[in-house]
């Protein structure tokens, strides 16, 4: 009884010890930010695909600097049965390697810019990269467009007859 009254008086004097303000201090503890939490780092990935290769570049949005880049030749590819090079499989390997690099650099959210060329490796890359624990905010397909349009086809001229045929 004596101890309980002492604690009640102590809590009233100190303000944040026991009974009176326990719920307040608990909510303050829950709202405090963890020192181990990383801030959300945003980046953009530019993918350029050619007929037989794929180039990926990771840029930081805030600093506007290139952080890392890769191509299809980077990941090691074991050709077990001496088959023809499979770009889809190589794209999957590249997605695995590039996703790992992106996570190591601390990026949590990326936007992907694709060029207009279609490639099987690009499909494999996006399939595997989407499974990584990186949020993809958007995928933008940039089409190649002509600035002045294509050259128009030659206009065929038909010979005009000035004289009327008379029979």
Automatic annotation (TrEMBL):
Query: Which GO cellular component terms, listed alphabetically, does the Swiss-Prot or TrEMBL entry include?
Result: ribonucleoprotein complex; ribosome
Q: Name one GO molecular function term.
A: structural constituent of ribosome
Write down the InterPro entries for this protein, in alphabetical order. Answer: Ribosomal_uS11_sf (IPR036967)
SUPFAM superfamilies in the cross-refs: Translational machinery components
**A GO biological process held by the record:** translation
The reply on keyword Ribonucleoprotein is yes
Entry superkingdom: Eukaryota
Keywords carried by this UniProt record: Mitochondrion, Ribonucleoprotein, Ribosomal protein
Name it.
Ribosomal protein S11
Give the species this sequence originates from.
Cladosiphon okamuranus
